[in-house]
Every structure is written in C-alpha cells, then in structure tokens.
Design brief:
elongated, Aromatic-AA_hydroxylase_C, six-stranded antiparallel beta sheet, 3 domains, alpha+beta, ArAA_hydroxylase_sf
C-alpha cells in the first residue's frame, strides 16, 4: 500500500484506490516550500478579510500550516476528527471518480505544487488549490454535507463520449503548463484544441452540467449578498490573483440558482462572473433541484438514450427494482417510450445494488436484451400479477407461451422459472427454445441458449456506473500521461540549495549561513529570482539590519524594472513582512 490508511479510507472501493499515489513528501524542494509559504501568508492576510469565516477557522481545525506544505498523514489524523480523509493523486482524475471520492468523505489532493512562475494561478490541480482551498472549508458541517451529497449525486451523472475527450485534453494542458520549459507554441496548440472541443460539444451531458454547478460553487463560489459577498470557493481561496480580482466591480456578481448549471466556464482564464449563494444550505437546495432533472431520478427513454450516447458502463433500474448494468447500445421505442433495450458485451443483473446469483458478466458475456412495458391487451402489468393472475395468463413454469408487448415485441418460448424480488414481485423470467422478435427483426434466437426476460413496465432510473461495484473489473484506469518531472540543471539545483540554506537559517537549524553571500550569489547567478530576496528581507527586518534591508530592496527594484510582471508580487511580499513585524 502506497499510503497510510484509516477507517474512512478503508471503506473506499478498490476501483477508487487505483487513483491514490504516495505523496513523496521528501520530493518537495525548499523552493516549493517557499512558494507554499508565500501564498499561504498572503492568502491568510487577505482572506481573513474577504473569505467566509469558516476558512480561517478551518485552517486551524484541519491542521493546515502556513509555513509547511501539509503532510497527508498529518492532515488525515486531524481530518478524521471531522469525519473526512485526504488522499494524494496525480493531477486531474476522471470527474466521476473525483465525485465518488467526495461521496465517501475523501478529499482528493493533487500532491504536486505549482511552479514559482505560476504562483498566482495554475490550471493544474495542486496542493495549494486542494490543501489550502478545499480542506479548510469542509470543517463547516453544512458545507461538508453539501460536498458529500454532491459527490453522491455527481458520480451518477451520465457523461458523453466527448466529455472523456475534453477531460483528456484538459489534463494534457494542465500537465504541460506546469512542466518546466514547455514551448509556448505547444501550450497554445493545447489551448486551441480545448477551445475547439468546447465549441463542438453538442448538447451538454449531465456530467457537463453538474461540473458547471461544481465549478460555480465548490471552486468559484461566493456567499452572502451580491453587494457584500465572501469567498468560499477553493479556486478563489487558492489563487492570490483571482481572490483579489473577484472582489472588484470588474467581475459581475449573480444570485446563485440552477441557471449556473447552464453557465459554461473557461479553466484557462479569470472568470467574468461569479454566483453568490445566500448560505450553504441553499447550495443543497439547488443541487436537489438539479438532481430532479437527472436520469437517475427520471429514467425513461431519455435516460436510456443518454446511456447509449455515453458509450460507457451504465445502469438502468426497472420499476420492479431489477438493475441492468452494461454498455447500452440500442433502444427500440414506440410512442415516446422504450419497448426494448439492448447492451453489448459483459452485462450483469442486480437487485438493490447486489448482483443476482447466476447473472454475472460471465453469464451475459455477449450482452443482454429485454422488452420493457406492459403486455398488449392486458391492463395489469406482469410485475403486479399475483400467483393466481400469473397462472391464469399461463406465465407459469413449463408453459409454452407467446407474450406480445405493447409496441410489438414478441417473446415466444417455454418458461423454465421466475426470479422474485423481496416484495414477491417477479423481476425475471427465464425461457428455453425462445424467439424474440419486433416486426421482421429477430432479437433473440433459440440456438443462443436460455433467454432471461427482465420484468418491468418502465425504466425508473438510469445512471453512470454499475449497480454492484463487484460485478465488473473497474481497476482498469489507464493514465495516458503523468505529471512531467523535469530534469534539473546545476543552476536550478544551486538555487534550491540557497533556498534550503535560508529556510534552515529561519528555522534555527543552521544559523552559520552567510545571508549576504547568498544575496551576492543570487545577484550574480540568479538575477531574476525574487522570492528568496523577499525571504532575506524578512530576516534582515527581524534583525533590524537596515543596511542589508536597503541592499535587498535595491536589488528587488532592479528585478521589478527588468520584469514588471512580478512587481506586485514583490510589493505584496515586502508589505507582508512590514505589516507582520509592526503587528
């Protein structure tokens, strides 16, 4: 096992555990630690004024340190107290898996950390975003329940085949953007590819819509009033650039509603508008309203069509409670209703999320097909027939029978047996020597073996994934590309050593370091590095060494002149030091 487990993680199904990777804490460099420290000091200083009060409280409750990148083991010990856990993953994972982790009260944390060049914002998930953004807010019980419930509903959302393509494209962009030295034209090409995909998605899938809701709440949500909002979204809490930008009049504030599900977002740009919820409880209300539009609650013809369009493993549940899981390939419809459904490849049947004995993917390796609906000319549905009704209509063991359904599907064969649910209703009828037809089309032939006919007059639910997680081998996740770890040159290694020396000096591990020598080496060999001089300024200020302070400030002014883009970051760093020492 590559991680330290606990009672919450023990409950995770195996197919989710395949995404977990070790955090490898020792791989964080002193530069990484300095990036974390800068962002956290700036965030806590600023966000204590503009974030929801749960943020600052949550930092303490979840054990997030300002000075050190959080260690997952330490976080888990503290998160356990509020009923949550955290795991490390490699960047973006599929949306349905991400949601399912949430349903188990597990926070997914991308353990990499952004480069110094992307200190204000990165499209890639990183430990600043996840650890400093998501973790503190889940200490609020109402919000934590929203997050769990969101995961529970979200992992049932049906995706389209195009969603998977977009996910891979976004993951690719996030990887190359964070990889040191990626040519700009390669990044531009990846961004254009995403734009092209987004413009040609067609009708948005359930997963696309619920991801919009996730984005405008969990990632970029504001709370309070439109006139005086506070930040709670993790994307804003972890972006020192956007958390300031979003509070200006340049970003439109809109009262949160289900409309957010139909408002698309661009992960590569600052958001032009944000939604404001009055309180955390209202988030759950909108989520339930949205869930009422999903196939998991509406079923029907549209539900089965969504599953066919997804080209992925999904489940339908019939009115008897019988659940059919597989890749749905076809539906025959009549008068706006499904009258026959068909899967392709391994299919499993279940009842109440438990596979029926004798109906695994081994038994239905080539797929499964069945009529849906009521018998023609008979008012009572098969599922509502008692033993006497079934005998009267010759739906009985040993009887050779021809059943014609509304819509024209015919099932002709000899009944062997029936399977009942806990309520005593027939949910499955097994035939031998069976032929199934619809008009001139033969849907099943006697030489194919026994025919198992599902019983149910309608599809009450359709959703992503299997009914019984044990019915399928779900441990098949293939990450096509992993986060790129650049080979470091001697110049970079030297800079890391300087950062480490100053970190050790500040922490009292080694106070014999000559800070002046470090500054001279920076001027000579690393003239564009601004973060370490800011840390040196902090130490000079603490020692009240005014001459050294002045020399550092002059060096920082030169950097600002040569690279105006980092000017505000330097100014903010100096202000943080000055303010902290005054207070």
């Amino acid at each position: 096992m590559s991680y330290e487990s606990n009672p919450i993680l023990d409950k995770l199904p195996k197919h989710l555990k395949q995404f977990i990777k070790p955090q490898n804490y020792e791989e964080y460099t002193a530069i990484d630690q300095a990036v974390w420290r800068y962002v956290m000091r700036k965030n806590v200083d600023y966000l204590s004024k503009v974030a929801h009060k749960s943020y600052v409280d949550g930092l303490k409750k979840t054990g997030i340190s300002i000075d050190h990148i959080p260690n997952m083991y330490g976080m888990n010990r503290i998160l356990k107290e509020i009923g949550w856990a955290a795991v490390a993953v490699d960047g973006f994972i599929p949306p349905s898996a991400f949601m399912e982790f949430q349903a188990y009260n597990v926070l997914v944390i991308a353990s990499d950390i952004r480069q110094l060049e992307n200190i204000e914002y990165t499209p890639a998930p990183d430990i600043i975003h996840e650890g400093a953004g998501h973790a503190p807010i889940i200490a609020n019980p109402e919000y934590a329940e929203y997050l769990r419930r969101f995961g529970e509903i979200g992992c049932k959302a049906i995706s389209s085949a195009k969603d998977y393509e977009l996910y891979n494209a976004v993951r690719h962009l996030s990887i190359i953007k964070e990889a040191h030295g990626t040519p700009q034209n390669e990044i531009d090409e990846a961004e254009k590819h995403i734009e092209h995909l987004q413009e040609n998605m067609g009708e948005p899938s359930e997963m696309a819509l619920i991801r919009n809701l996730h984005w405008w709440t969990v990632e970029y949500g504001l709370i309070g009033t439109v006139e005086n909002p506070k930040i709670y979204g993790a994307g804003l809490l972890s972006s020192i650039g956007e958390s300031t930008w979003c509070m200006t009049d340049k970003v439109k504030k809109i009262p949160y509603s289900i409309e957010a599900a139909h408002t698309e977002f661009d992960i590569t740009k600052p958001q032009p508008q944000l939604f404001v919820t009055p309180d955390f409880a209202f988030l759950s209300q909108v989520l339930e309203d949205f869930a009422n539009t999903m196939a998991v609650r509406t079923g029907g013809l549209s539900g089965i069509k969504k599953l066919i369009g997804s080209k992925a493993l999904g489940t339908i549940e019939l009115s008897t409670g019988l659940q059919i899981s597989g890749e749905f390939s076809n539906v025959i419809e009549n008068d706006g209703k499904p009258i026959y459904i068909q899967t392709t490849g391994g299919t499993a049947l279940a009842y109440r999320e438990k596979e029926l004995v004798g109906h695994s993917t081994d038994h239905h390796a080539e797929g499964f097909g069945s009529p849906i609906g009521k018998l023609k000319g008979i008012n009572i549905a098969i599922e509502n027939m008692g033993p006497r009704d079934l005998k009267a209509y010759k739906i009985y063991e040993g009887e050779q029978i021809a059943l014609e359904f509304e819509g024209g599907v015919k099932v002709e064969g000899t009944i062997i047996t029936g399977t009942r649910n806990l309520m005593g209703e027939i949910i499955l009828i097994t035939f031998e020597n069976c032929t199934v037809t619809h008009g001139d089309k033969v849907l099943f032939q006697p030489e194919w073996g026994l025919y198992h006919m599902a019983v149910g007059q309608k599809i009450v639910s359709a959703y992503n994934g299997p009914a019984d997680l044990n019915s399928f081998n779900l441990i098949s996740h293939q990450i096509t590309e992993t986060t790129i770890k650049s080979k470091k040159d001697e110049e970079r290694l030297q800079l890391e050593r300087f950062y480490e020396q100053i970190r050790h000096f500040r922490e009292g591990k080694n106070t014999t370091i000559s800070r002046n020598k470090v500054l001279q080496a920076l001027k000579k060999d690393h003239p564009q590095d601004w973060l370490l001089p800011v840390e040196l300024y902090e130490l000079a200020k603490q020692d009240n060494n005014q001459e050294f302070q002045q020399e550092i400030l002059e060096h920082l002014e030169n950097i600002k002149r040569d690279n105006p883009k980092v000017g505000h970051l330097i100014d903010d760093g100096i202000e943080l030091v000055d303010t902290a020492l005054v207070s």
